[in-house]
Amino acid sequence: ELREDAFFYKFEAAYQQATNSVEFKKKVRLEQAKEFYDAFIKAYPSSKYVSQAVLMADVIDQLLKNYNTKS
User: Fold this and answer.
1) pTM of the model
2) For the chain, how long is the longest CA-to-CA vector?
3) Each residue of 45-54: pLDDT tens digit?
């Protein structure tokens, strides 16, 4: 369970860093956070953090969609 907690906190930290980044670093950090999310869900699909992680991933997806429409 501690490993699960650590895995989630790593994703959460990446999410916080990405969403609070300066604009020129934001897209790369959002993509990295999304990779952490994918790895977390793959490792712990029935985690107690799944609902929170899904909400955070939705925000990441929405922000990344904004970058894709700008291009």
Assistant:
1) 0.90
2) 41
3) 999 999 999 9
